[in-house]
Every structure is written in C-alpha cells, then in structure tokens.
Design brief:
It contains two helices and three strands, in the order ααβββ. Strands 1-2-3 form a three-stranded antiparallel β-sheet. It is α+β, with helices and mostly antiparallel strands.
C-alpha cells in the first residue's frame, strides 16, 4: 500500500470521531447532553443551536450508530466506533490522539472531551 493511500485511509478512519468530539465542549455550557441526536439540535436553548451539522456515518460499518462515552457528571463526553476490526493506523498520531497507538480494535479509539 502506498504511503499516500495509507494516509487517505487513516484520515477516513479518524474524521467522523474527531468531528463528534469537537462538538463536545459546546454542549456542556448549560449542562451535558445525553444523546448524539441532542448534539444535532439542542432543544434546551432558545433559537437553533447545533453542535453537529449531521450524524456522521462510520465508514467501516456504514452506520450512524456510535458507542457513547459517559461523563462522570452525567451526559456524554465522547464517542467510539462500534466496528471491531483492527485499525490500519497504529502509530504517529497527533498529541490529542496519542492514546490510540497500538490499539487492537477500532472500538478502543475513544474520541473524548474532558471539561475543565
């Protein structure tokens, strides 16, 4: 596999989870939300507030279903893949994704946000 093709596959594996975890900080403002659907339209706020534009499909399962990482204070603080395959990418992650190194399952990739 060429280096360019491998990198394209790696980015495809990471994009949906990174988008969901990027939405997490905003949903904690008035209190945590408990579903991915609530990130699409926050009914607690006046007007329209969306933290995600659309539900991202997992390219490995072709499903928009994600596992939820629950926050200790309630609500969700991240997502993970439901796919059980072994990740192609095993090393050289960014600092924020360093915990993904050497994981044996995509389900071990937890895209999380820790509120301050």
């Amino acid at each position: 596999m060429t280096t360019i093709l491998a990198e394209m596959l790696n980015q495809r594996e990471l994009k949906p989870g990174k988008a969901a975890s990027a939405a997490m900080p905003y949903q904690f403002e008035p209190g945590p939300l408990s579903t991915i659907d609530a990130l699409l339209l926050d009914a607690r706020m006046p007007g329209t507030r969306r933290y995600l534009r659309r539900p991202y499909r997992d390219p490995l399962t072709n499903s928009d279903q994600w596992g939820l990482v629950l926050a200790p204070q309630g609500g969700i603080m991240g997502v993970y893949r439901m796919a059980m395959g072994t990740p192609i990418k095993q090393a050289n992650f960014s600092v924020t994704l360093a915990g993904f190194e050497n994981k044996t399952s995509y389900a071990d990739w937890k895209f999380t946000y820790l509120p301050m």
